[in-house]
Amino acid sequence: MSKPVVAIVGRANVGKSTLFNKLIRKRVAITQDDPGVTRDRLYQEAEWNNKYFTLVDTGGLEPNNEDGPISQNIRKQTELAIETSDVILFLVDGRQGLNPIDQEVASILKRSHKDVILVVNKIDDIKYKNEIYDFYELGFYDICPISAENSLGLGDLLDEVVKRFPDDYDTDEESELSKVCLIGKPNVGKSSLINHLLGEDRMIVTDIAGTTRDSIDNVVSYKDKEYLFIDTAGLRRKSKVVEDVERYSVVRTLSAIDRSDICVLMIDATEGVSEQDTKILGYAHDQGKAMIIAVNKWDLVEKDTNTMQKYVSSIKNKLSFAQYVPIVFISVKDNKRIDKLFDAMELVDNNYSMRISTGVLNDIISRAVLLNPPPSDKGVRLKILYGTQIEVRPAKFMIVINKKELMHFSYQRYLENQIRENFGFEGVPIFFEYKTRGK
After folding, report:
1. What is the pLDDT of residues 281-313, one digit of tens each?
2. Which run of H or of E encompasses 60?
């Protein structure tokens, strides 16, 4: 059974994203006074009185605005949200009063025949409360006055929302899914991949780089396994980050990496690895995330028998810290080798949870020491007493030694390589913690 879907709909700049963030109790949607900041539909799980539902934030709806592809797509995305929703929160600005666009939005909502609650926002002062009655002209009789910014009236609103859920819907908490974060430069095909996997145009896809500004969650099933995909805004070089919104998008991408399990770096095959790709994958590595490199638009590259091998060598050379990361070549446009991406995801997800027993780990360390004795300094040699794995997701090993200063980076890399030779850990970073044994 699916979860109830609640969409927040309204014209631009009435506080939809602020309300969205308050109801999910975290900052996900970008909130700013510029109209049209939220372009895509944002999906997040929300809860009230142990009832879980999917909350959708939408772009500002301006029915007669046909200025450019972005405005048209915002309207399309909002109408899709309306179509897939069970309850709609029609948000209006209580301070500005009735607006002609509100009336046009009301007409669209009436034609949808969906369950609509009229939510009058920005009622945070007694002098505005008498003005909510003007909004009865919109033809909706369930009115909830709130102040999203000050969290006033939100409990009453949520009580009204959960009353309207159909009895046959599943409102229990979702099980934990492996979270997959798509990262990379703008316009490399991240949103196109999500749309392909979902089989619908849930994301805005245009040739304008940076169309996706927010991080968006979507559940995708493959071979009876579900993944939570997080599409992110494409990261630009800092010199090109000129708007506050673009700065927020960079923060949002880093935040999406922080809460993910697997990061898929998407690269445009016609452009190769950029400096920004190196930085963002380096951040994912430092945060201990499982990683995959997906080279998209492979159909556009002229090939011979060694093209793929040369391309892999080029990536490994530029991303020297990520030698363990698997590389897959795909074409989202032509639906080629997408299954290879999912195979890689399953592999690194399993490796992410891999645990080595203490006995086996110490056998590996002992053989490594025999083959290549530890370094010494001023007559004192490094002694590795024993090791144990203390964490998974990512793998972290505690090594007990005689003196921390003697553990050189190169010998740590040697130990890491020995562990990988025996257990793979493909796509997963390995971390070490050192402890000296007291006398």
Report:
1. 998 999 899 999 999 999 999 988 899 999 999
2. none
pLDDT per residue as tens digits for the range 368-382:
999 999 999 888 999
Label each residue of 28-57 as H, E or C.
Answer: CCCCCCCCCCCCCCEEEEEEECCEEEEEEE
pLDDT, mean over the chain: 81
- The SS3 assignment for 148 reads coil
Tracing tokens 């790709």 back to the chain, one arrives at: 277
Distance CA 263, CA 12 (A): 33
**For the chain, first and last CA: distance in Å?**
61
CA gap 260, 255 in Å, rounded: 9
Residue predicted with more confidence, 63 or 43? 43
Determine how many CB atoms are found less than 10 A away from the CB of residue 1.
8
Q: At what angle do helices 68-84 and 100-112 cross, to 10 degrees?
A: 40
Give the DSSP letter string of 386-421. EEEEEETTTEEEEEEES-GGG--HHHHHHHHHHHHH
Cα three-residue angle 105-231-44, rounded to 5 degrees:
55
Residue 187: the pLDDT is 84
Which residues, including other chains, have CB under 8 Å from residue 177's CB and lie 6 or more apart?
219, 226, 227, 228
Asked if residue 417 lies in contact with residue 281, where contact means CB atoms within 8 angstroms, the answer is no
Q: CA 170 to CA 389: how far, in whole Å?
A: 39
CB contact set of 281 (below 8 Å; sequence gap of 6+): 183, 263, 265, 291, 293, 319, 322, 325
42 token code pair: 């944002």
Q: Which amino acid is at 170?
A: D
Whether pTM exceeds 0.70 = no
CB 118 within 8 A of CB 94: no
Secondary structure E strands in 35-162: 42-48, 51-57, 87-93, 115-121, 143-145
- Tell me how far apart the alpha carbons of residues 1 and 292 are, in angstroms, rounded to a whole number: 32
Q: What is the spatial distance between Cα 208 and Cα 17, in angstroms, rounded to a whole number? A: 23
